[in-house]
Amino acid sequence: MKRAFCGIIVILFIFLIIFLIRTPPIDPLAYSPPPPPGLSGALTPNSLLQKAELLALGKIIGPEEVAVDYAGNVYGGTANGKILRLRMDGTMETFADTRGRPLGMQFDRMGNLIVCDSYKGLLSINPLGDITVLATEADGVPFKFTDALDIAGSGIIYFTDASSRYGQNDYLYDLLESRPHGRLLSYDPATGQAKVLLHGLYFANGVALSQREDFVLINETYRYRIVRYWLKGPKAGTREIFADNLPGFPDNISGNRRGTFWLALFTVRNEAADRLHPFPFLKAQLSKLPRAFWPKPKPYG
Question: Residue 88, SS3?
């Protein structure tokens, strides 16, 4: 009995050594998040969204963002690559199939649906559902996680590559690594060229132009903040913090071009993740484990 127990201990010790010397899939840095703000004042939880009308309940899975055409039809991308159209009469139909993962989307002045597909890049879909690939890389670096967009009156598309290293299936690696792999980019339909405006963003997620289109807001999801990048004026080409230490992970952001922005937090801050961030070694070891052992986001709208 004692010999069998010792044998088990030896085997477990060997497995532990193998686990520790195994190369982790990430190269993490230490990050010390600020204490989250209390949910009081404007952040006090409420039940206002209980009054919202639920559209296409159970008929669409994973609409990251929605777009509305001139006729009032609503479009949303699904987890299996389809873009569905919800007509005014309540019927649902497939508008297009990118065979990727459509995320941010918006109609341009010509009636084309411009889409950030995390796998396929920046796409344009005409009213018949025909897909054209606009861009898949910038400055020689392929898009790894094409995410969110907004379109200026000039037609220029501002969009993000959430992470130039980790794709859709590995976004949690980007969280643990705590390195700024995200980029803000622009695409000019007149030239057909995409260029990088801003490097070094911590998971660039969500894009919204200002009322005068003199700046653009970008969510840095894994830093709980929003960055402002100036497009015009004396600060053109510079960035600054617009909103910091948010109570959750900022995802989509949009503006009405009249001075108001709407921000979506996909969940509240994760206490376990915040406590783990200052310790790169522990994050590296966690990344080796099956994801079932990773900190879980709390379902919270």
Answer: coil
Nearest CA among 126, 150, 146, 125 for reference residue 137 = 146
Q: Could you tell me the pLDDT band of residue 3, with boundaries at 50, 70 and 90?
A: low
pLDDT tens-digit series, residues 24-35: 999 999 999 999
Tell me how far apart the alpha carbons of residues 217 and 274 are, in angstroms, rounded to a whole number: 24
CA-nearest of 76, 113, 105, 69 to 207 is 105
Q: Write out pLDDT tens, residues 138-154.
A: 999 999 999 999 999 99
Instruction: Note the pLDDT tens digit of each residue in 30-55.
Output: 999 999 998 899 889 888 888 999 88
Q: 89 φ, ψ to 5°?
A: -85, 5
Phi, psi of 3 (to 5 degrees): -65, -40
**Coil/strand/helix, residue 75:** strand
| Residue of 27 and 20 predicted with greater confidence | 27
d(CA 220, CA 105): 19
- 76-86 in b/e form (b: 16+ CB < 10 A) is bbbeebbbbbb
Distances in whole angstroms, Cα of residue 49 to Cα of each of 52, 83, 150, 218, 300? 5, 25, 25, 25, 12
Reduced 3-state DSSP string for 182-199? EEEEEEECCCCEEEEEEE
pLDDT at 9 over 80: no
Count other Cβ atoms within 10 Å, centred on residue 217: 23
Query: In angstroms, rounded to a whole number, what is the distance separating the alpha carbons of residues 145 and 101?
Result: 10
